[in-house]
Amino acid sequence: MDPSIFLQYSPPSGLPQESKLATYMNRSTSTPTRSLNQALGKLSLESSPTSIKKLSNGAPAGMQQVLIGEFVPISYYSPTNILPDSPESSPPATLPPTMPPMPTNPQVHQENVGGTTYFYSTNDSLNTTGCLSSSASLVGAEACMGPVVSAAASPYASQIYSGTPTHMGAPMGSGKPGLAASFYMPETIRNEIYQRNEDVFLQTDLRQYPDLPENVEMYSDLTPLESAAPHSMATSYRAAHRHSGDHYALRRLHNYSAVGNKRLDVWKQIDHPNVVRLHDYFTTKSFGDHSMVLVYDYHPGCTTLMNKYLATGTQGPNAEANGAFHDPFSSDPDAPRPYTHQKNAMLRAVACGALLPEAVLWSLLVQLTAALRAIHSAGLACRSLDPTKVVMNGCRIRIAWCGVADALHPTASDMTQAQQEDLSALGRLALALACRSVHCDNLPASMDLVSRTYSADLKNLILYLLSTAPTRRSVTDLMPMIGARFYTQVEALERRADAFEEQLAREIDNGRLLRILIKLGVINERPELNMDASWSETGDRYMLKLFRDYLFHSVTEDGRPWIDQAHLAHCLNQLDGGTGAKVELMSRDEQSVLVVSYAELKHCLEQAFDEVMLAAGAAP
Ligand SMILES: Nc1ncnc2c1ncn2[C@@H]1O[C@H](COP(=O)(O)OP(=O)(O)OP(=O)(O)O)[C@@H](O)[C@H]1O
């Protein structure tokens, strides 16, 4: 923009009455208090929207075109550019203790430049007000959408995405990652999250289960997790809590006749990342019998270790994809037959790369031993550690349905023996995973495979767990065998946490911008409010309407829509921050330009939205 076009001009008095801005300006009671030069000095043109060429076609005769250089999307993610005058950039401690209200009629200076009228706020307190208003409205917005957070603790100036941290990006000099990669979530994380969401919303055809009760105590929408086997003693369901709507996994024990036992209350206390948490248990007659129901956390997208790593291709959905080991003694006629015995089949598995990498095995073992350590130190035993009762989603495994054995056998008392059996069960599970077969009865052949393929530590750990010596074993004895692999696991988890934190940093502002868009949508072009048909065309709302036009309906010099998503996000961030940066809004009749700060626009937005909310909550 060439400022000389303003400087040479001596302003006429008055606002063109045909301009719709007159409606807004009529509310002003003040007189101009500073010169156009002063006002221009305050303009932040680097981020000004007027770099959009507008009005070239069909501009009324005599009107001065506001022609400014093509808008160049500067680095919107650089805090120095995005918030030139941001009042929020000063530390919260410097804010005045009280919050002066936004003046309803800010002092406005107006200038007509060759037929285009410019309006400037001359209220010097605007910056401060904008800052405070933004804090206030943050609380307002949060109160409307969720828990209130301390506005002062999170100034908006620092809430704009600052780019991928170097420790997450490609190393310098190793070539640029694609632009898309820097804007979008990696496919792996997206797929993982989508898969979980899909699982929660997946509806089973409940006509197949006509006997399912509509409600079971506080739970409804029961969906079987597995097709029921005939004469089954237990059935699993996903269900929604009737009050909170949260999903839970229910385990129903059919024809349950035992009385309650205290161990289930101890199970409820176990809160461990590798144990599916028991929340509640109750007996019910909703299924037509006397059943006991145990209520667990529901982990969407789960599959059992059996299905993931051990089932043959026809049995498990993931098995084929993961190169599952084909059991040489499978009853499946299509399964490859061994030409000699189990050992040969295992060696063939090694040759075709179907065995799990050792790092995966250690990751599973570290998690399982962590779970057992928590369970045993609580004075409990798992009693059912087998691959069908360990579930997995992502890289996390959890022992499922803990406490069911205690519910079924409340009088079983030898806990020490049960814990020893847990360790043996862990040994069998480790061997099965190492051989990728549940048929490891030929122990020498299986151990031979393990020693040929994996480290001595893994072999020793399995031997220790399977040992039948009378000496008492403990899960803590496994620690030296795991050794430094524990650090590998911790490092992998930290890297994963880094990746998720990086994604969170990218997406964290989306909700904030959505809330602003919702507010604008609620206000703009509302046909009428409180019987006032001109509501959206007057006062604060008119400014917002022009801002909406500016944001979404800008056109290039030759009339084509001008769309730059970075610019959109930049403007919405400025609005949310209520910064002192100025924006020039053109009236639709192209006769006037209103120069306002984002602080003023933010105030308008909050006022108008509050009005709508008030009207919405009013008694009919
Ligand atoms: N807490 C949980 N959250 C989500 N899914 C789970 C949970 N626990 C288990 N599952 C899933 O539920 C499905 C059924 O588990 P379940 O143990 O009932 O299998 P099953 O083979 O039918 O065993 P059983 O014959 O003993 O009932 C499995 O696919 C498992 O992945």
Automatic annotation (TrEMBL):
Homodimer. Forms a heterotrimer with a catalytic subunit PAN2 to form the poly(A)-nuclease (PAN) deadenylation complex. Interacts (via PAM-2 motif) with poly(A)-binding protein (via PABC domain), conferring substrate specificity of the enzyme complex. It comes from Loxostege sticticalis. GO terms for cellular component: P-body; PAN complex. Residues 523-620 are annotated as: Knob domain. ATP binds at residues 251, 297-304, 388-389. PANTHER family: DEADENYLATION COMPLEX SUBUNIT PAN3, PAN2-PAN3 DEADENYLATION COMPLEX SUBUNIT PAN3. HAMAP family: PAN3. Residues 484-522 form a coiled coil. GO terms for biological process: mRNA processing; nuclear-transcribed mRNA poly(A) tail shortening; positive regulation of cytoplasmic mRNA processing body assembly. This is PAN2-PAN3 deadenylation complex subunit PAN3. Regulatory subunit of the poly(A)-nuclease (PAN) deadenylation complex, one of two cytoplasmic mRNA deadenylases involved in general and miRNA-mediated mRNA turnover. PAN specifically shortens poly(A) tails of RNA and the activity is stimulated by poly(A)-binding protein (PABP). PAN deadenylation is followed by rapid degradation of the shortened mRNA tails by the CCR4-NOT complex. The gene is PAN3. The keyword Transferase does not apply. It is found in: Cytoplasm, P-body. Its main location: cytoplasm. The N-terminal zinc finger binds to poly(A) RNA. Pfam families: Pan3_CK. Gene3D superfamilies: 1.10.287.3700, 1.20.5.5160, Transferase(Phosphotransferase) domain 1. The keyword DNA-binding does not apply. Belongs to the protein kinase superfamily. PAN3 family. Keywords: ATP-binding, Coiled coil, Cytoplasm, mRNA processing, Nucleotide-binding. One of its GO terms (molecular function) is ATP binding. Residues 222-620 form the Protein kinase domain.
